[in-house]
Specification:
The structure holds 2 protein chains of 2 kinds. Chain A is α/β, with parallel strands linked by helices. Chain A contains 6 helices and 7 strands, in the order βαβαβαβαβαββα. In chain B, the strands form 3 sheets. Chain B has a 4-stranded mixed β-sheet. By secondary structure, chain B is of the alpha/beta class. The chains are: A alpha/beta, B alpha/beta.
Chain lengths: ~180, ~280
């Protein structure tokens, strides 16, 4: 298990290899389908984004509401592939990390390599367990989207794996070899 | 004629929503424990250990097992000797879902329009409601909270009679293969065979309601369930797509009569958090 403090330096990112188990600490932003669509529209209109993408990490999650006394409710990753249409542009604008589950398409993989970024994979369906690593949640934008709003999380030892590293090595690749078939 | 107040249905629905979000069924919990022992790869073992631990934390701390607390699907079997009183049945079910989700800090995941506005309804309603009139004077309720990571990977195909058993096997395994790590394996796979385009999809979802230990009562279909399970696990997708021995915990088939020209097959993919409950209002 590698302990990593965010934001990661280029050197730290380059040292990671697909399959590495890591524990992330620091600040990350939540955004999923609807928030990505809006970010994309804001970029197209040349508007200022609600948070600084430089060196940022986005966690694809739509948590359950926090009960009184909790920082957050259940908070596991959602399927990353749905964000594939938006991710390359965000990476080109400075995003350095994404946390989600499942495969990414070739455009995302290329953008990861091009920008020396990292795709982290968390265990889907482990939302109760993962909530223990989230210390704080603060609103950032799009509150009307409820669970899909952009928020800032402070995480401590958040457990995940390196899914795609800076060199484009992908933990899901073996799947394709075994099955002899590309993902959809 | 027996009178049943719809308020009792509302209460039952609310309490089932609350229960299944945090308390994993014992059949699933046991299957996950067993699957954990079968993994050797570092990532697959770690993922299984986290899933088992997650189930424990969810139960003990009453935190939803998964943040996708699902869309509510409600099956009502209404005895023909029952007279429902106290208001609209449909409203009662939706009110029950709303209370179950809002009062228990579950996620509102329903949007009003599927294509354009996609505005969150904030209540996790409307629920998908199926009603069936049956003999007797009771109301039986089955409720499932279906997550969409796996629902998105479900598929239906209109096979022809000539496709036979091999056609079914090929389509089911192809669907599981495409679901891969995205849909949170190990899966529970519901398969519908027969009926029509629409009813076949319903069959595949209903198949997910069966306890994992219960096989199809027809020996030929039970054997096919086993064949499909073995086939799924030979795909080496493994827990979370991290490669490994358990891609599915169970494959459950429901079959129905169909047309001479057809053999519809539906595959409803469900993640390991296959949440459902039953209640009887007598």
């Amino acid at each position: 298990m590698k302990r990593l403090q965010l934001p990661l330096s280029e050197e730290e990112r380059m040292s990671l290899k697909a399959g590495d188990a890591v524990l992330l600490s620091g600040e990350i932003y939540t955004a999923r389908d609807a928030a990505h669509k809006r970010l994309h529209e804001m970029i197209e209109r040349n508007e200022e984004l609600p948070f600084d993408l430089n060196d940022a990490v986005i966690y694809y999650v739509g948590p359950t509401p926090a009960k009184p006394g909790q920082a957050i409710g259940s908070a596991g990753p959602t399927t990353s592939g749905r964000m594939d249409p938006y991710a390359p542009l965000l990476l080109d604008l400075g995003l350095k990390g994404m946390i989600g589950k499942g495969k990414r398409n070739d455009q995302v993989k290329d953008a990861i390599v091009r920008n020396k970024a990292v795709y982290f994979v968390a265990v889907g369906g482990a939302g109760a367990l993962l909530s223990h690593s989230i210390m704080k949640r603060e609103p950032v934008a799009f509150d009307d989207l409820l669970a899909e709003a952009i928020t800032k999380l402070t995480v401590k030892d958040f457990p995940c794996f390196v899914g795609i590293d800076c060199l484009g090595r992908d933990i899901y690749d073996r799947d394709e070899r075994v099955l002899g078939r590309e993902e959809l | 004629m027996k009178e049943i107040n719809v308020r009792r249905i509302e209460d039952a629905v609310a309490s089932m929503c609350a229960d299944i979000a945090v308390n994993c069924g014992s059949d699933i919990a046991q299957a996950l424990e067993a699957a954990k022992e079968k993994e050797e790869g570092e990532m697959a073992s770690a993922a299984m250990a986290m899933l088992v631990e997650n189930i424990r934390i969810a139960r003990e701390e009453q935190i939803p097992i998964c943040q996708d607390t699902g869309l509510a699907i409600v099956w009502l079997e209404i005895g023909q000797d029952v007279h429902l009183v106290g208001g609209s049945l449909k409203d009662a079910v939706n009110k029950g879902v709303e209370r179950g989700y809002s009062d228990n800090y579950l996620r509102a995941s329903a949007v009003d329009d599927p294509l354009y506005e996609r505005k969150n309804t904030k209540t996790n309603t409307p629920a998908v409601i199926y009603t069936d009139i049956v003999d007797g004077d009771e109301v039986k309720i089955s409720l499932m909270a279906k997550g969409f990571g796996s629902e998105n990977k479900s598929a239906l195909k209109m096979l022809t009679p000539a496709d036979g058993e091999q056609g079914v096997i090929d389509f089911v395994l192809e669907t599981i293969e495409k679901a891969g790590g995205n849909a949170c394996p190990p899966f529970v796979i519901g398969v519908g065979i027969g009926g029509t385009f629409d009813s076949c999809a319903c069959l595949s979802k209903k198949a997910l309601l069966r306890p994992l230990s219960q096989h199809n009562s027809d020996a030929r279909y039970a054997a096919l369930e086993q064949k499909l399970l073995d086939g799924a696990n030979a795909l080496n997708i493994g827990p979370m797509g991290f490669h490994g021995n358990t891609t599915a915990l169970a494959v459950q088939i429901e079959q129905a009569p169909t047309h001479i020209a057809g053999m519809p097959v539906a595959v409803n993919v469900c993640c390991h958090v296959c949440r459902h409950a039953k209640a009887v209002i007598a």
